[in-house]
Structures are given as C-alpha cells and as structure tokens.
Amino acid sequence: MTLFVALGPVAARAATPDAARVGLELPADWIVESTSVATVHGALSDAATVRRLAEHAAVAVPKLSERLGVPAGAPIDIVVAPDAASFGSLQPGHTPDWADGTAWPNLSLVFLHAPSARRGDAPRLEQVLDHEIVHILVGRAFGGRPVPRWLQEGLAQFYAGELGPQTAEVLTRAAGTGSLLPLRQISAGFPADSNGAQLAYAQTADFTAFLAQRAGGGESGDAVLRKLLAAGQRGALLSDAVYASTGQSLELTESQWQARWGSPWVRADGLAQSGIPAVAATVLLAVGVYRRRRRYHAELERLEAEDRRIDERRAYNRWLAARRAARRQDLMNRVPDGYAWSHPVAER
After folding, report:
1. Is residue 176 a contact partner of residue 266, using CB atoms and an 8 Å limit?
2. Average pLDDT, 10 consecutive residues per value, the chain (348 residues)
3. Within 10 A of 230 (CB to CB), how many other CB atoms are there?
4. Environment class of 327 (CB within 10 Å of its CB; exposed 0-12, middle 13-18, buried 19+)
C-alpha cells in the first residue's frame, strides 16, 4: 500500500497570500482552483490536473460525506506536488518516501503527486484522492482522537474502490497457505514487515467490503458501515463494533468472511503461487478438503449456537431490566410521599 495518513498534531509553516488558509508556503506562480468543498493548488504545468481534481472533489466530498454519515466540514486543501522533492518539503511533517498521497485531517490538508511524478502503474489520481478524502472526513469525525487503523484503512480502501486483482492475489495466496491474519491481531496493530502490512491492508479492505455486500450493498451496505464507524467513534473495539453493526460476534462474522477465500480452487492457487507444484497442491487438497470442510461446518455451527446464546442472554437481561424498572415505578406510585404505604399498616 502506498498511502499514508498523518493524524497527530503538527506545526504549520508561515503563510503566504496564496495559501493563508492552509498555513503553507507555496510558490507564487502556482494556480488555484476553488469550489465550496475543496481548493486545489498546483504548478502551472499541472493546470489541467488541478482543474480535473477540483471538479472531482466537488462531487466526491459531499458524496463520501453522505455515504459515511459524517459532516463534510470545512473545505479541504489539496496540494498537487510537481516532483518528489516538493512533495516532501511542503508537508507540515515527516512522511515516508513511498507515500503516493498523504492526508492531515487536523489541518484538512491532502498532498498528491502530480502525474509526471508518479509511476506508470500507479492507480488513478482520482482514486488516490478519494482515499485521502475518506481519511480527512473520518479523521475529523473523531475530533482529533486517533482513528483505529483497521477502521481508517478499511473504509478508505472500500470507498475509493481499491479492491481489485492485487487484493485478490494477496488474499488468495494467504488463504491457500493458511496464513490469513486473525482480525483481532490486525485491530491491535498492523504488522511492521511489508508483506504482513500488505496482507493487513488487503484483509481490512475485503472484510469491510464483505460487511457491506452481505447487507445487500448500496444504501444498505453503507448503513452497516455507518454503524461500524459510529461504534468506532464511541471507542468500541473491533469485536464490539462488528456486533453493533451486524448483530453477530466477530468470530462468526470472521469465519463467514474467511469462507469466501476457503474454496478448493482458491487454496490450490495460493499453494501454487507459494512454490508448490500444481500436482502436489492438488494431492494436498484432495487429502485435506474433506477434513477442513467438516471442521469448518462444525466450527460454524458452534459459533452460530454461541451467537444465539449471547442474543438470548441479552434479551433476558433487557427483560429483567424492564421488569425491575416496572417494579421501581410501581413502588414510586405506591409511596407518593416517600414513606406512607397505600395499604393499611398495622401499628405496634
């Protein structure tokens, strides 16, 4: 993944008239394209890109704001850096060399590379911008508090439409070799190594898409993800956020998600990509598929039964709380002055 989000406080640089609102020193000959939701800054040589991104942001910001269920907020400033040197020097803080785009939610700032400074196989600049806009909107919705990375990256990748062949390839290989990361592990922090981090990015993106697609996609899918985001804003952990948005435990939901990557052809492809010859992979699968299928269905039944017990316990607790509340209300009705009962009390 080549995207970076900075959420911590940073010190803005001295302002120039062209960039007073963002507190940045930008070259005097740069051009500016403004709309009600975004202002794009860039070199004169990138004028077409600046105009195109301003037009895109004018549509994308309100649309993503509505889908996420968070305010659009103040206008976002988007800086299109013409080269790697300016991309690094203009940032209000340190960023890694590999970043394709950065977002600073507390400053409503986005930085992008100009087309001439990007790789030939890089994703569309509008897609990168959508990713960063989601980071800005979600970061501001948290009011300066840190956003869990699994939530931030899952939503950004999903709403930027980044799930594609590369994500499928990473997940296919991991499923085929049994190396998918537990979602609880990802929620505690992404791995430090590049392969592990790439897998964590892919899993959060696909799991987020799974939650939306299982709800039917479209507005129904967005509604589930809005609940997930709202739970995250309340400080919920991944397990609580998943329950709040789906009504299911994380364990059951994760098991159902993994099932989409657990088919025999997915595992064969993953084994083959890991260096095991196709014939050997087929033999291994023929031996293990029956056992895995039985274990999977047994585990799924166990998790579903556990979910039912949890729901029954929650329902009983709600009934018990309502009953106790009714008794307290009855007692209040019977003791209007705080001590005299409505029925006769025998004197000693």
Report:
1. yes
2. 42 36 79 96 97 98 98 96 93 85 95 92 94 97 93 97 91 92 95 93 96 95 97 95 95 93 54 40 41 53 65 75 70 40 36
3. 16
4. exposed
Residue length, the chain? 348
User: Nearest 5°: phi and psi at 112?
Assistant: -130, 155
Q: The whole model's pTM is what?
A: 0.73
- Show the domains of the chain with their CATH numbers: 3-279 (1.10.390.10)
What's the Cα-to-Cα distance from 282 to each of 129, 170, 265, 293, rounded to whole Å? 43, 20, 9, 16
Torsion 60-66-70-74 (CA) sign? positive
Which residues are CB-contacts of 68 (< 8 A; sequence separation ≥ 6)? 134, 137, 138, 141, 155, 159, 222, 225, 226, 229
Vertex 215, ends 293 and 296: CA angle to 5°?
10
Cβ-proximal residues to 80 (8 Å cutoff; 6+ apart), any chain: 40, 41, 42, 43, 46, 49, 50, 53, 112, 113, 114
Return the pLDDT at 24: 77
Nearest to 248 by CA among 260, 236, 239: 239
Q: Determine the Cα–Cα distance for residues 330 and 312; give it in Å rounded to an integer.
A: 27
Q: Which two tokens stand for residue 202?
A: 């892919």
Q: Which residues contact 140 (CB under 8 A, 6 or more apart)?
A: 70, 71, 73, 105, 106, 108
